[in-house]
Amino acid sequence: MKVTIDGIAIDVEPGTTILNAARMIGGDIVPPAMCYYSKLEGSGGKCRTCLVKVSKGSEKDPRPMPKLVASCRTTVMDGMEVQNITSPEVIEARKGVVEMLLINHPLDCPICDQAGECHLQDLGYEHGAAKTRYEFDRRTFEKIDIGDKIQLHMTRCILCYRCVFTADQITNTRLHGILNRGDHSEISTYIEKAIDNDFSGNVIDVCPVGALTDKTFRFKNRVWFTKPVEAHRNCDKCCGKVTLWYKGEDVIRVTGRKDVYGEVEEFICNTCRFDTKKTADWTIEGPRKVSHKSVISANHYEFKPLPVVKTNPVLKEANKEQFERETRL
Amino acid sequence: MARKLLLEHINVPGINTLEVYRQKGGYAAVEKALKTLTPDEVVEEVKKSGLRGRGGAGFPTGMKWSFLAKPEGVPRYLVCNGDESEPGTFKDRYLMTYIPHLLIEGMIVASYALGANTSYIYVRGEMMPQIRILEKAIAEAKNAGLLGNNILGTGYNLELYVQPGGGAYICGEETALLESLEGKRGNPRIKPPFPAIAGLYGCPTVVNNVESIAAVVPIVNEGGEEYAKLGIGRSTGTKLISASGNIKKPGVYEIDLGVPVEEFIYSDEYCGGIANGKRLKAVVAGGSSVPILPANLILKTINNEARLMTYESLSDGGFATGTMLGSGGFVVLDEDQCIVRNTWNFSRFYHHESCGQCSPCREGTGWMEKVLHRLEYGHGKMSDIDLLVDVSKKIEGNTICPLGDAAAWPVASAIRHFRDEFEWHVTNAQEAITRNYGLAHYADPLPKLEVTA
Q: pTM (2 decimals)?
């Protein structure tokens, strides 16, 4: 099936969504997505940041669609023509959605652990307005404790439902869900149970904002001071393929491997994520490639390899690569 | 006086019991449909009648039925939407309270037409008395052999269930209703797939309003063509209007579509005019979510023709000068009513009822509510008015379900038609707390349109 997005044509399989077709093309024309997660069935359609304009429905029925559509949940038709960044209407609507997402989201990035790898931060920077017109108090919630590994900051939540889908599809029991409705709806567990099973930690990886963070990593470091390295281990529960985040010689965090759209390649278990934080536990594969547009690679203030890394040849290699990248910048 | 089809026997004592209902000719439609017509013929009759959905959108019911997918070996469902929660609309509750057997009769005929063997009536949770009434009526019908296995010896089986909802406006949206019926959180689904393809439990489903289902009974009894003779143009048949507000005789009225709005408000047969000798200021013609119109525009269209109670005439002029028939919640406001307060009240409702699934509606409804609250209580700014228009535009059309549009339209239309009053609330903030803006020029005759040759 042929689909044209912002004037660029591509052939895709029937049943592909507009968003995935755009991702196949890549570049600036990919609509941002806060709630869609390709690994989670049924996700998407909620945040409305991926709205696009369908200027021609299909070859058979060339009428344009009357409203903007969520590209993550609209499948392509043969001959469809889509406008994303070439349509002022889409840009305007997206700006509106970003403003809506931010009116109740605390602007506490300086103290938020997600800063630097937060999708809402990127989205606000790229698509939002510089000022807010909202002049009222933001909504707040009573804090609840959902266990010793995962921290929930409900005020930062944008209700993308990704963590709910993760619990439904990756783990065998879901203990949390959405309570209440409207702008006072919240992620919570029924009567404040702890979320505890082998794969529960994945909710941290899928969370696009700082609402679910890793308690074993919290306040240890800013993400742009750490060094991502790919590693694996033999794990009987999961694939064991992870990204280790080094500070000096210490592994301070373990996450799944995230691609350019912030989606993990494979989900990992809690043992890998929380309990194996020694270099000796892992077989190091090499440095994790992070786009040099990302703050994770762009904002290393020191332009020389961190001095503590002396012995491990793989880490040395990683440092060298990073050094080259930064000096090029 | 026009003929009544649905409420003909409403004043007969004991019409809520099966015995009296059958004496008055009840369940004749079931006998006729099951014994003499095929399901396709029933669908054909409904198509001929031109019946349009009475829940708000006005989609032709016969067409909706013919879209139902009919794969082999998969059950089909009929769901009746009794989750009536639109502020200003109370016709379904009236129907279910006083004449429950009409709905059950309609359900049997409609289920037969669609080939459904299990049907549900989803009733809003707050309407517990109506749920009890319906359950009692279903038990009566079942005892009489009108429900269950082998109805009236025709070999057709139907089980009918009443399902109370949890009391959420959003569950009146058909896909949210289905989610709720399945026992999940009432979040609207993303369409497509439409319920006609994959609805309840992934099976083809038709969701119809209480009044649409009830209207099937007279259609089958008298034939679709006879029914289509009532009304004007594409708005056929009769419609229940829930009239409320500052009128002498509030209540539920059955009208032939095509009655002039002026007659509906002022004639003694219907609303009986504005109460306490006041003057008409504005009308919300179809439930809280349709655009509000000032007195001059509700009585006459922009072309200076009399506005009629039909789907087409009420929406004449589009969003600029028209409104919609919606679900028939006719709210009349007199000269003492404050439009800003009314708009704030509506947007407070939508803020409370937004499901919180998609961001423009979740955040935007709350935002509009707060700004309107500020305006109403005299802390507003001039820029707030444009801000409201802008926010409502950002919500409208960008959401999964129509609740976002429903929240945006009343605000946008109130500002479009009553901007002076909003501005007065800003400039005369102190005065706005103590007195109302009054009628102003809202009932003035419309300017003559310039005829372009």
A: 0.90
